[in-house]
Design goal:
By secondary structure, the protein is α+β, with helices and mostly antiparallel strands. The chain has one domain: Porin. The chain contains 9 helices and 22 strands. The strands form 2 sheets. The chain has a 20-stranded antiparallel β-sheet that branches. Strand 17 and strand 18 form a beta hairpin. The chain starts with a helix and ends in a 15-residue tail after the last strand.
Length: 490
């Protein structure tokens, strides 16, 4: 048991590290759960069973998730009997080849977190209105197997490497969302939500074509890279020709000089200036997004639903950097004599740096959110038992990332509900989830995850982590749990 707990703890730490350097999935388990007011975040048509709710600041809800499409815990950590501890694949006795074999031609690490500072919902006749203010961080990192092969083995195994699609897309933004749902006699609900987005920081990889060919006689590097960024409090040095000044950055790597590169305000007066406030609140980087969905009961006990989320964009106009780099560089070696006072490694780096200069401009650009589509169907066996299935696809850079979840939902009485789920993410089939929602008087608490049981039963297969928890004050709820006079789906 302690070893299993150690597995989970270490992976959580990895997830946090990946998040800082590493968009993310939403938990599907709570799509059909009873007694979860914020389920309308997955489908704006859903109406809670209570007439109104107020979310606790920061915890209404709090969400975190990280997922890898290829790597599992066992691919990174293995037990070493001689050391008497778990070691990574980079340890002198680690299995680097096992790590490489686990990688796909293209690998993705997605991570994200959000915290809702304000969450309100209230019913007015057949309408249900919602308002939310959230802080969001979303990230999508991709890299090829060839990149890992080159970093670990160099060109000992192969001579041609494709590093294309090496990309990092990350955004931090504020979201103000106003939604409305209309209930047509408990048989059909239609909803939409408009979201004002205020961007704080962003990195968007527009293009990444990188190829390397190596031989005994020469190495050839071809690259075509375009990256846009909005980096508040970062002042990168640019030379008079418009190129990134790498030498100046190197000279500022000492801790006592980093303030010249990172101009982070040190006091409240700096932050409350017009410029400081516009940066903190993202006023200079406005955006807009739209969600919409429906919920329909075609026959008794059967419910179908669908929603489309995050159809939107952010226009970045503050703290801008557009990085472009295009090169076709061939290294044919160097000539020197033993009498030369010369560092070959430094000379190679200088030569490569001159051939791969990065041009920098400062033009506004637009980034788009990763849209999500949900398709759901449910069967209500009784008023207390519901079975559901949800298919979700996430669209990022014209690629689709799918998840399918089936769940059993049980509400023995009006103050308690639970859910067990099973999900498939791509080629990962070992994902058991659970959800619990409790209401005591006006206080509602819920905790939902798609993977926690999987981490216990198959800790070595653990490749993703997500959870969502929330606290709400709820009013006008039916303590008996009866479904009369309210929608069948929360």
């Amino acid at each position: 048991m302690p070893e299993r707990i150690r597995f989970i703890t270490i992976l959580c730490c990895m997830a946090i590290l990946a998040w800082t350097g590493a968009s993310a999935q939403f938990s599907n388990t709570y799509y059909y759960m009873y007694m979860v007011p914020q389920a309308n975040q997955l489908n704006p048509a859903f109406q809670p069973e209570c007439r109104s709710y107020i979310g606790f600041p920061v915890l209404s809800p709090l969400r975190f998730e990280v997922v890898s499409n290829s790597l599992h815990y066992k691919d990174i950590f293995t037990w070493n009997s001689s050391e008497g501890k778990y070691i990574t694949f980079m340890h002198p006795e680690g299995d680097k080849q096992k790590f490489l074999d686990a990688l796909k031609p293209m690998n993705v690490i997605r991570a994200g977190a959000s915290s809702t500072l304000i969450s309100l919902g209230w019913k007015q006749e057949m309408f249900f209105f919602t308002f939310d203010f959230s802080e969001r961080i979303d990230q999508h990192l991709s890299f090829s197997r060839d990149l890992a092969e080159f970093l670990i083995n160099g060109n000992l195994v192969q001579s041609k490497f494709n590093f294309s699609d090496l990309a990092n897309n990350a955004s931090y933004y504020h979201e103000l969302a106003f939604g409305v749902s209309y209930n047509f006699e408990d048989e059909f609900q239609l909803g939409a939500r408009a979201k004002l987005l205020l961007g704080t920081g962003n990195v968007t990889t527009r293009q990444s074509d990188i190829n390397l060919k190596t031989s005994i006689d020469e190495w050839n590097l071809k690259s075509d890279i375009l990256v846009d960024a909005s980096l508040p409090y970062v002042d990168l040095p640019i030379d008079e020709d418009g190129y990134l000044d790498i030498d100046s950055i190197r000279s500022l790597t000492e801790l006592d000089q980093m303030d010249l590169l990172l101009g982070i305000p040190t006091g409240l007066p700096d932050l409350i200036t017009p410029s400081g406030l516009s940066t903190v609140f993202g006023i200079r980087n406005p955006g807009f997004a739209l969600d919409f969905g429906f919920n329909y009961r075609p026959v008794e006990k059967v419910i179908v639903s669908a929603s489309v989320l995050n159809l939107g964009f952010i226009r970045w106009r503050n703290s801008l950097y557009n990085f472009t780099q295009e090169t076709d560089y061939t290294f044919e070696g160097v000539e020197y004599t033993l009498d030369d006072d010369w560092d070959a490694g430094e000379a190679l780096l200088d030569s490569l740096e001159n051939a791969t200069k990065i041009r920098v401009t400062k033009n506004a650009y637009t980034s788009f959110l990763s849209a999500r589509v949900y398709l759901g169907a449910a069967y209500e066996l009784t008023e207390k038992v519901r079975f559901g299935g949800v298919f979700r696809t996430r669209i990022h850079n014209y690629k689709f990332y799918n998840q399918f979840t089936i769940s059993a939902n049980y509400q023995p009485f009006g103050m308690l509900s639970g859910s067990l789920s099973y999900s498939v993410y791509g080629s990962n089939y070992k994902n058991l989830g659970l959800g619990l929602s409790v209401r005591g008087g006006p206080l509602n608490f819920y905790f939902i995850t798609d993977q926690a049981p999987s981490a216990y039963f198959w800790p070595q297969e653990f490749s993703s982590l997500n959870f969502r928890l929330g606290f709400n004050l709820v009013f006008g709820c039916d303590a008996s749990g009866s479904k009369k006079d309210r929608p069948l789906i929360d």
